[in-house]
Model the fold of this input.
Amino acid sequence: MTLFEWTTSTIQLTEVCFFSSESSVGSLTAIKLLDLKDRNCFLVAYESAILFLCDFTSHKVEIIAKIHMSGEDFIPFAIDFDSVNMLCAIGGSSDEILILKLRSEDNEFEIVKKRKMISKGVSRLSIRYCSKIYC
Done:
């Protein structure tokens, strides 16, 4: 199944949001669909600064990795993922953009960089083809 077929198929929002009721992580604030090594996946960010990487290849939501991004008043609003370099950029309510690396050996996220912004709040960002962040 290609990512296009997967995104056009019906996904129940209750399936995606079941993490919210399980661990009281708050409301869903950002979601990003992606292809990850022939797997249909998505990133889900919640207002408590928790990010889940989920697999939906077998039509069952499975958590592959998660991270709690601690920080003062950080609520993630925008996420993008570079599947070549396995990097995730996250912007939110604070004046920082976090760069996370997904380690393939243990499927864990680690924060590799924090970039300070001039003003607070990033509602949209993307990783360009040259691996630079645009927001």
Q: What stands out?
A: Residues 101 and 110 are 5 Å apart (CA to CA). The longest helix spans residues 3-8.
